[in-house]
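lol so apparently i was supposed to do this last week
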Amino acid sequence: MIKIFHLAFVLISIFSFVGRVILSEIQPEMLKQKVLKIAPHVINTLLLLSGFILVIQGQWLSGEYGWIIAKLLGVLAYIGLGIVALRSQGTARWLAFAGAIVCFVYIGIVAVTKNALFFL
Ligand code: HEM
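anyway here it is w/ protoporphyrin IX containing FE bound
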């Protein structure tokens, strides 16, 4: 059940991020709305929280947990690059945006393979 919530927050998080980047290009003044400022924090907090609950529920820390650490670092990079993408402009914005998407895809593949170095 928690996994369904987790996957829902994963989807809501990426759609809200891409949506805000599009808005910041075409209608940046809309991003000043209170709800659009608060919602991403709520979504990302719930994403992290559901992830932590899954870690405890699945007792993932009692085994090989390198992939959990990789996911956490990936999430930090995804959020950090997301902030840069939304605050900068031009090439810097698009590089940060591409980086955030790469992180997101990496986190997703690590989640499924349970292997931080799946590409080796
Ligand atoms: C952008 C961030 C995230 C993405 C894209 C993501 C993606 C996913 C996906 C696709 C699954 C399903 C894997 C499967 O059923 O095979 C999953 C499960 C899981 N995620 Fe995340 N996740 C994210 C954040 C986190 C965080 C921050 C944590 C905790 C530190 C976490 C911990 C877990 C755990 C423990 C599972 C359950 C694994 C299982 O039961 O097989 N996730 N995640």
